[in-house]
Every structure is written in structure tokens, then in C-alpha cells.
Write a structure and sequence with these properties.
The complex is a heterotetramer of chains A (about 180), B (about 100), C (about 300) and D (about 400).
Chain A (H helix, E strand, L loop, with lengths): L1 E8 L4 H14 L3 E7 L8 E9 L14 E4 L8 H5 L7 E5 L13 E5 L1 H8 L6 H12 L4 H30 L1 E2 L2
Parallel strand pairs in A: 1-4, 4-5, 5-6
Antiparallel strand pairs in A: 1-3, 2-3, 6-7
Chain C lengths: L27 H11 L4 E5 L3 H6 L11 E3 L5 H19 L6 E7 H6 L2 H10 L4 E6 L39 H6 L5 E5 L4 H12 L5 E6 L3 H4 L6 H10 L5 E5 L2 E6 L7 H5 L14 H22 L6
Parallel strand pairs in C: 1-2, 1-3, 3-4, 4-6, 5-6
Antiparallel strand pairs in C: 5-7, 7-8
Helix pairs in contact in C: 3-5
Chain D lengths: L7 E7 H11 L4 E4 L6 H12 L6 E4 L3 H13 L4 E5 L1 H16 L5 E6 L13 H5 L6 E4 L3 H16 L7 E6 L7 E7 L2 H7 L16 E2 L8 H13 L2 H15 L6 E4 L6 E6 L2 H14 L4 E6 L1 E3 L3 H7 L5 E6 L10 H10 L7 E6 L9 H11 L6 E3 L6
Parallel strand pairs in D: 2-3, 2-4, 4-5, 5-7, 6-7, 11-12, 11-14, 14-15, 15-16
Antiparallel strand pairs in D: 1-8, 6-13, 10-12
Classes of the chains: A alpha/beta (about 180), B alpha+beta (about 100), C alpha/beta (about 300), D alpha/beta (about 400).
């Protein structure tokens, strides 16, 4: 079973990226659960979501405490290093969004990946919604589902026009994500 | 009321009453202290008493003349009060 | 049959049985009987908890000869909304080919107070039904407690004619206008003493699509403390003193249906009823004056509004 | 599990969407509902189905939950198929009408996205609302996952509307944990498929101008107790019919449904009894504990009302200890709600396990492997009867 934890802020599509990942896995015949963590937050406040993916039926429905991968959608959250690595499995992966990858820092003890989803979103979607670029980066790193499946899910979710922009964002996230440590 | 009290096994489903208008069997005339008495010779068939009787105790006949049904009449006196020709008088029930 | 010119035109057929348990002299049965006659064709009655429900359906008996349902106190309008929706579906989806009138009855407690939310919701949503408030101006079924419909000064068991506070200090809310300003197609006031006016309003309401709200004045010998024979006389005085004006608002156009050019003195109305007796004490003259002022303002308001082409 | 996939589509939906699809596929006629988290998605989706012309139903967007249930009472009494959904405070506002719907034998189906009752206000899962309905004469199902939420809503219509049953039914799904989580599930291709299992409702009583009846009269000392006795008898007679329908549904869907589910219980020393989504988490935990040599097993209830007395008595045979997990608390009662049902169920048994009551997960507090381990440690302390887990300070 692969477990992913998503960090971001309300309004950045944290829940949507987890949903899209789960739906894509389901499309490919896998078992998956998307779990949003709704607290008292509103737009702008930190938000989490969890995705579990397996080839077998998934019984467990608690939140993900020991993720294999943590995806940080909001670039401003990277500084909360304890929160990001909390419970992350030994040797697990951190993938984070950074507007200036030259300043990227490694999370010691974890495989660290970065992508400039910030600029991808602003260039492609014209709005600071980084989730789909980060979804692309996650798939680039972990190859959980095929890009084509994600593209289908995006079109279903957003329709042709917005869907295509997001496909572009996913594609660029997939191609531009880099391992730094 | 001399209703036979039924056991729970005999009651209709869903607590309904399935005999519409079955209060018709209930005698409410026993409530009465005063008794309306109609003088048919004064009746002008205006139907005011029929319209206003709360107890449906005024029977409207074919020709719109009326008849008092004492089985239901509770003796409120509206008919006597409203009758434009004073064709109905209230008298003591016991007399 | 439709509209009537005289009482003899009212249909003979009764859809409500005698043997019910209403108080002697109660005004409620008039509205039941006339509604069931004036609304021609199939109909379903919804009843809020209250005198009407209790006195007409003491298990295992019922005075109703038409389909009837009671659920709770505050939800007659919501229950009616569900029935109306169900019959729309029965017509549209399952080929049921009858047009069914859905008519809800609630007392003033069930309408002015606890049921106003459900009523407002149902009027706003535009269900095709009639809501009739039978207003005896207090919670009579529980033993005469004040409601939002109790008039100023009236004594009830929770607004007694005390030494310091003589009766209900507050006035009556104007539910007819509250209902009307949901911008529904028809509202009207009804009084049994003006039977032709009342009956013809019922016929008219039965022919209008959409929500209808009817406010029926029902004299209550028990709660108002008057001789049972005076029921209709008091109802008549309520109109003649302009205490209860008769009017209708049809698609926003207000019309006074029984004009009272020379009103009778209010005292004639008050003196017949025990609930107002303390008001005739000279020390409570200010309350009678306040009542009179309210009645006058209300009448003038109706007069002015009746001059307009529409008020909503 | 073997799944019969004919005329079913594998897709991913959250629990609320699954419930909305179930009501849609059941070809419901009248829906009245009021938005409340975490149930809101259900009414949103159903509104979309109606506004897009996919579902030929009347959707009544009422002004309160009290009116929601009142309106479906009116509609159900008119003979059509009815649905509503709510949670927590909404159920509390409906409370008065719950009893009326059952007494009048109206087969309303309600989805309850279980949520804690105020105060303080919380939007997450407790079973306070589900338990609040337990005495009201509604059949209550609990879904463990999104698939069950979908299936049980469809089955609940058949159950509620069955002429031998004719009682309203609630399908509980844990707020957020199921209502907002996306999972894979099979749904039918559409209404035509479901219609084969769920034909048009034939009411036992209805408001019919051609055959007038009085529904909801006043019953005083001379009749009320007889009426309740008759209602009680009718409710107690429902289990065989419910079981038959669940079996038929299992056949129809290819997914097995019964009153209770058992996992590794037959040779277990310690059993755990749960409702709702925690069954999944506990199954995962039991599997892991078995690997550690702990002789544990799991029972979860799909049917909560009427309480599956015989099934439970049978399932606990041979257990030394039964841990009853309540996601709620009953103030002033000796134990929490599920425990008391179980204690009463087992009281007359000659041999029965020791019972322990565990209170957990209130207001959405995560129940995970660590909480489970804490529970294990606490239940093995000597003399333990009632414990809280996952709470700071204990």
C-alpha cells in the first residue's frame, strides 16, 4: 500500500489533487481512498488530504500517519519541516513546490524532490493554483498511475477547456520535478 | 359512548381510522342543557340555522325546510339566536 | 356549483360528520364544512395539532369523510407541501389524472407562532395549496394561553387580567400581510357571519393556482367566555366594529370586500366577552383607546392600500 | 469478494455522492432536505440530478430539517417513494417527526451522515445522532464503506417499502470518514437495472380521495397502548423479512449482506464489536494483531435496529472477552449505548464473555493503529469495565 499526505492551504486545490490521484488509481482498477482532513479551516488556512493506493481492498480508514510520500503544494509551508516530515516513513519522499529551485534545501534522511509549480501554475493556469502541477510532479516521482489516466480524470472533472490547462500543468510538473537529495 | 374497546390485534394497520365519518354513531345530544324547538310555520327556509349549526344537527330537507336532529344537538342556541323569524326557541331540556 | 348568491345555493352534500367533540357553539366547524363544499373535487386535508384535530379525530373515530392527515403542531404547511409534491409526481410520472386540492388547517398557535417557519417556507416555495388559519386568538386546546394572535388587552391564562398587568400587553401580529408579502396569488380574511363573502372567497381560492392563505375568524365561547348562542353575533360585531376587516388580496390587488361605513362602537363587541370584561373598568380605558387606535389605523391602512393598483 | 459486474460500473465516489446515486437509481419520487454538513453533498447531487432532468422527482428545498421530514411524511403518506438526508443537529430537529413516521408506518428512507451533537459545535463523526433515533421505530443500517452506503440505500428502500415491514429506515454513514472520502465502488448502470430489484412502491395505506382514511388521529388512555403494542409487534416481526431482502440483494448485487459481519471471530478469545467505518480500520488491526499472535476477532453490525439479537448471541459464542466500541456517550447510563444493547442481549445466556466498553472517536477524533494499540493495552488491565481511548488525560 502506498500512502500519500498532501499539505497546502485552503483554496489551492489540496483536496482536489488527492481526489484526482485516487480517482485515477480507481480508473486503473486499483483500490484507493481519498480522505480530506477538514478542520476549522477556511480559504488560506493549512489543509491536509490523504491518499491510499493498493492492489488489494483497503480496509483502514484512519488518517495517514506514516506516509510514504509527502507532497507540499504551498511553497510557504516548506519551512514547517517538522510538520512535513512528521511520521514520514524512513527513506520516504518529500516533494515540494519552490518558486526558486536554486534555493532548494534537502530534507535530511528523506528523498527530496522539488518543482517550481508556482511558476508553472502562473504561466499555464494564470492563477496561483499549484495542485495539478504538484500532482504531475508526484506521478513523475512515483509513477503511481499513468499520465493518460490523470488526463482523463482532469477532463471529467473540469471539462475540456479548464481540463486542458490542467493537463498542461500536470505534464510540466511531471517533466520538471527534480531530485535534489 | 358504548364503543367496544378493541384489542391491539384487531386494530387497522398504521393507526388509521378507516371508516370515514364514523363519529356519526356518537350521540352528542346528551351534552345539551337547553333544547331548540322549531315552529315550522314560522320557517322561511333561509337555511341560516343549517349553515351555522356547529353540530350538523339541523337537517336540510328537500324543500330547504329544516328539522332538528336531537341525537347530535349540543344545545348551543346559535340557531335560535340567529333565526330571523324567531322560529326556533330554546327551552329547558329537563321540562 | 361554484359561487353563491344566497345560502340556499350552498351544496347539500356534507363531507364532515356530526358526532364530533367540538364545544357547543364552536365556530370551527363552519369553516370545515364550507371548505369541503366550496373546494370541488378530490381533496386532502392536513391538520396541525389543535382544537380542530383533537375534536374531530378521537381514535377510533373520525368526523372526516375526506382523506385527512395530522402529523404535528408546527408542520402542517410542510406536510401539505410534501403531499402537493407527491400528487404532482403521481400526475406526471404515474398517470394519476385527478387534480387534488391540498388544504392545510392550523389554529392561530400553529400558524402565527410555532408553525410560521414552515408556513413561510411553503408559501415562498410556491406550492399549489391552501393554508387556512382558524384563529380563535389563543391556545384554546391547551386551555386558553396567549398567542401571537391574541389581541391587546385580552385575558388568557398566560396573560391574565392581573392587578398590575391587565391582559395581554402586546397587540396582534398581522399574519395576513406577512403571508401576503410572500407575494402569493391570493390571501383573504373570512368570517362566518358573512357567509356569502366567505363562501365565495373559498370558491375563488379553490380556482387559483399557487399558494393561498386564508385567515378565518373563529369565535370561541370557551376561551372568550361568552354565551354559546352568541357565536355568530360576536363574529358579526367583529366585522361591524372593524375589529376584523374583511378583505382579499388577489395577485397583489387589495380589495375590501365588506365595507363598514359606520362602525359600531368597539365596546359592543368587548362587553359580550369575558376575556375583555376588565377593559370596561374605567381605569383600563387607555387600553380600549389603544385598541381603538390600532383598529382605526388598520382600517385606514386597508382603505389607502385598496386605492392602489397593486401592493406587491 | 466476488463481484458480479454485469450492468454495474466501477467508479470512484465519496459516500455522499454514492448515497445520492443510490436514491437516483432507486427512482425516488419526492426528496425534501435541508443542507447540513457533512450530508450536504447528497442534497446537492440530488438537486443536480433533478435539475438536469436525469431524475424525475420533486425536490423540495425546505426551510428546516423539521420541515424536511414533515414534507416526506406528507409525500410518503400520499403513496410515493421518498428520501431525505441529514446529520446531527438536523436529526435532532427532526426528532419529533421520527416517531410519527414510524407510527404511521411510512417507508421513508433517510441517509444520516453521522456527526457529533453540539455543544460544542463540531461537524465530524460521532454516533450521537444514530443512537438518538434508536428508540423511534426506524430500521437502522450502518455502512462500513462507500460501497455499502450505496447498496444499503437501495436495499433500504426495498426493506422499508416491503408490505410485511412498512417502516422507515435510516442508512448511517460516518460523517467525513465516509461522506467525504472517495473510494472505488460498483454502481448500477441506471434506474432500469435497480427497478428489477426494487419495483414501484405499493403502499399499505395512503391518502386517497377515492378511499378516504384518517391518518394520525388523537388516541388517549383507552387506545394509545394498544396502538403501540400493535406497532411494537409489527416492528419485532421485521427481522426475517429484512434478512430475506438482504439475501436477495446479495444475490442481485454479487455483494454479501447480512445483519452482522464477522472477521476471524470463530477461534478468537477477544472479540471487538463496532459500528460504521471503524469496522474497516479494526479489520486491518485484527489482521496485524493476529500476526503478533493475539487471538482477536471482529464483529460489526450492518443492522443496528431492530437489534440483531440472535446473530449476536451466536457470534460471541466461545469468546472470553467482548470489547464493545461506542462512538458516543450516554450520560447517566451505566454504559454507552451499544454496550447496553449487547449486555441486555447476552444477559440470559448461560455462558457469555466478559464485556468491556470502549468510548472512542468522538467528534471525528482519529481512530488509528496507535489508538487501537492504546485500547489493547487498556483492555488488558485487570478489572477494566469502561474506558476511553484516544483522549488526552487518560
Amino acid at each position: 500500500m502506498l500512502e500519500v499526505r498532501w499539505h497546502g492551504r485552503g483554496g489551492q486545490g489540496v483536496v482536489t489533487s488527492s481526489q484526482l490521484l485516487a480517482l485515477s488509481a480507481i480508473k486503473e482498477g486499483k483500490y484507493a481512498i481519498h480522505i480530506p482532513e477538514f478542520g476549522p479551516e477556511r480559504r488560506g488556512a493549512p489543509v491536509r488530504a490523504y491518499t491510499r493506493i493498493d492492489d488489494k481492498v483497503i480496509d483502514i480508514r484512519s488518517s495517514v500517519l506514516n506516509p510514504d510520500i509527502v507532497v507540499v503544494i504551498d511553497p510557504g509551508l516548506v519551512k514547517y519541516r517538522e510538520m512535513i516530515t512528521d511520521g514520514l516513513k524512513k527513506g520516504g519522499k518529500v516533494i515540494y513546490n519552490i518558486p526558486d529551485p536554486s534555493k532548494a534545501e534537502v530534507f535530511e534522511g528523506f528523498e527530496t524532490y522539488v518543482v517550481d509549480a508556482y511558476h508553472i501554475a502562473l504561466e499555464v493556469i494564470k492563477r496561483p493554483i499549484y495542485n495539478t502541477a504538484m500532482l504531475g510532479a508526484l506521478i513523475g516521482v512515483a509513477k503511481i498511475v499513468s499520465l493518460d489516466t490523470v488526463y482523463d480524470a482532469l477532463i471529467e472533472r473540469f471539462g475540456e477547456k479548464i481540463g486542458k490547462l490542467n493537463i498542461e500543468a500536470v505534464k510540466r510538473g511531471y517533466e520538471e520535478v527534480k531530485k535534489i537529495g | 359512548m358504548a364503543d367496544d374497546l378493541k384489542t391491539w390485534r384487531e386494530l387497522p394497520v398504521a393507526m388509521i381510522v378507516d371508516q370515514p365519518g364514523n363519529t356519526v354513531e356518537v350521540e352528542t345530544g346528551t351534552w345539551r342543557a337547553l333544547r331548540p324547538v322549531l315552529d315550522p310555520s314560522k320557517c322561511i327556509k333561509c337555511l341560516i340555522c343549517w349553515v351555522y349549526c356547529p353540530d350538523l344537527a339541523i337537517e336540510r330537507l328537500e324543500d330547504d325546510s329544516v328539522k332538528i336532529n336531537y341525537y347530535y344537538c349540543k344545545g348551543c342556541g346559535i340557531c335560535a339566536e340567529e333565526c330571523p323569524t324567531k322560529a326556533i326557541q330554546m327551552v329547558e331540556e329537563g321540562v | 356549483m361554484g359561487f353563491i348568491r344566497r345560502l340556499n345555493d350552498i351544496p347539500r352534500e356534507e363531507y364532515f360528520a356530526p358526532g364530533h367533540a367540538f364545544c357547543a357553539g364552536c365556530g370551527i366547524t363552519s369553516i370545515i364544512r364550507m371548505v369541503l363544499k366550496a373546494y370541488e373535487g378530490p381533496k386532502i386535508i392536513v391538520n396541525a395539532t389543535g382544537c380542530m384535530e383533537v375534536a374531530s379525530t378521537l381514535y377510533p373515530r373520525t368526523a372526516w369523510k375526506v382523506p385527512w392527515i395530522h402529523s404535528a403542531f408546527e408542520n402542517a404547511a410542510a406536510t401539505a407541501a410534501g403531499i402537493e409534491a407527491a400528487f404532482k409526481i403521481l400526475n406526471r410520472k404515474y398517470g394519476y389524472n385527478k387534480k387534488v386540492h391540498v388544504i392545510a388547517f392550523g389554529g392561530d398557535g400553529g400558524t402565527f407562532d410555532i408553525g410560521i417557519q414552515a408556513l413561510s417556507g411553503a408559501l415562498e416555495r410556491g406550492h399549489n395549496f391552501t393554508y387556512i388559519c382558524y384563529d380563535n386568538e389563543a391556545y384554546m386546546n391547551t386551555g386558553i394561553q396567549r398567542s401571537g394572535a391574541t389581541p391587546m388587552g385580552a385575558a388568557t391564562t398566560t396573560s391574565p387580567a392581573g392587578r398590575v398587568i391587565p391582559g395581554k400587553p402586546q397587540g396582534k401580529k398581522d399574519l395576513v400581510f406577512i403571508a401576503a408579502f410572500h407575494k402569493i396569488p391570493y390571501v383573504a380574511t373570512l368570517n362566518p357571519a358573512f357567509m356569502q363573502d366567505m363562501y365565495n372567497k373559498l370558491v375563488k381560492a379553490s380556482q387559483i393556482e399557487g399558494p393561498k392563505f386564508l385567515h378565518y375568524y373563529t369565535p370561541c365561547p370557551t376561551g372568550w367566555r361568552f354565551d354559546t348562542s352568541h357565536s355568530i353575533k360576536i363574529a358579526r360585531l367583529a366585522v361591524q366594529t372593524r375589529f376584523f376587516p374583511l378583505y382579499e388580496i388577489e395577485r397583489g390587488k387589495l380589495r375590501i370586500t365588506v365595507d363598514i361605513k359606520k362602525p359600531k362602537p368597539l365596546e359592543e363587541y368587548l362587553k359580550l366577552q369575558g376575556r375583555f370584561r376588565h377593559l370596561l373598568d374605567p381605569k383600563n380605558k387607555h387600553i380600549v383607546d389603544a385598541l381603538k387606535e390600532e383598529i382605526e389605523r388598520n382600517w385606514q391602512r386597508l382603505k389607502m392600500l385598496s386605492q392602489l393598483d397593486f401592493i406587491y | 469478494m466476488e463481484v458480479k459486474v454485469e450492468r454495474q460500473i466501477r467508479t470512484g465516489l465519496n459516500g455522499d455522492e454514492a448515497v445520492a446515486y443510490a436514491a437516483y437509481h432507486a427512482d425516488v419520487d419526492v426528496i425534501a432536505a435541508y443542507p447540513i454538513t457533512p450530508q450536504t453533498i447528497i442534497v446537492e447531487r440530488l438537486s443536480e440530478f433533478v435539475h438536469d432532468g436525469l431524475l424525475d422527482a420533486e425536490f423540495i428545498p425546505v426551510e428546516s430539517e423539521h420541515s424536511a421530514l414533515s414534507a416526506v411524511v406528507g409525500a410518503a403518506a400520499s403513496g410515493v417513494r421518498t428520501f431525505t438526508a441529514t446529520a446531527s443537529q438536523g436529526l435532532a430537529l427532526m426528532y419529533e417527526i421520527l416517531y410519527i413516521a414510524s407510527s404511521l408506518r411510512l417507508p421513508i428512507v433517510m441517509a444520516l451522515a453521522d456527526r457529533a451533537l453540539s455543544a460544542l459545535i463540531n461537524i465530524h463523526c460521532s454516533h450521537d445522532d444514530a443512537y438518538a433515533a434508536r428508540d423511534s421505530g426506524w430500521i437502522e443500517f450502518f455502512a462500513e464503506n462507500v460501497q455499502e452506503a450505496y447498496d444499503l440505500v437501495i436495499a433500504a428502500f426495498r426493506v422499508a417499502e416491503d408490505k410485511n415491514i412498512s417502516f422507515p429506515a435510516i442508512v448511517n454513514l460516518d460523517g467525513f470518514i465516509l461522506s467525504h472520502s472517495i473510494e472505488p465502488l460498483y454502481i448500477y448502470e441506471g434506474q432500469d437495472v435497480v427497478r428489477e430489484f426494487l419495483p414501484r412502491r405499493e403502499p399499505i395505506v395512503k391518502l386517497d380521495p377515492d378511499k378516504p382514511v384518517t391518518i394520525g388521529a388523537l388516541a388517549l388512555q383507552n387506545y394509545y397502548i394498544e396502538l403501540k403494542r400493535a406497532q411494537a409487534e409489527a416492528f419485532e416481526a421485521t427481522p426475517p423479512y429484512i434478512r430475506k431482502i438482504l439475501r436477495e440483494y446479495s444475490e442481485f448485487s454479487g455483494r454479501k449482506y447480512d445483519f452482522i459481519k464477522k472477521y476471524m471471530i470463530d477461534d478468537a478469545d477477544i472479540g471487538f464489536l463496532v459500528l460504521g467505518s471503524t469496522a474497516g480500520t479494526m479489520r486491518h488491526v485484527v489482521r496485524k494483531w493476529r500476526e503478533k499472535g493475539r487471538k482477536v476477532g471482529l464483529i460489526s453490525l450492518t443492522l443496528y435496529r431492530p437489534f440483531p439479537v440472535d446473530d449476536l448471541r451466536d457470534a460471541v459464542k466461545g469468546l472470553k472477552k467482548l470489547v464493545i466500541m461506542d462512538r458516543s456517550y450516554s450520560f447517566g447510563s451505566p454504559y454507552a449505548q451499544l454496550y447496553m444493547d449487547v449486555a441486555a442481549t447476552l444477559y440470559d445466556e448461560p455462558e457469555k464473555p466478559d464485556l468491556i466498553n470502549v468510548i472512542y472517536g468522538l467528534g471525528g477524533r482519529d481512530f488509528n493503529e496507535y489508538t487501537a494499540e492504546e485500547m489493547w493495552e487498556k483492555i488488558n488491565r485487570p478489572g477494566v469495565k469502561k474506558i476511553w481511548v484516544g483522549v488526552r488525560g487518560d
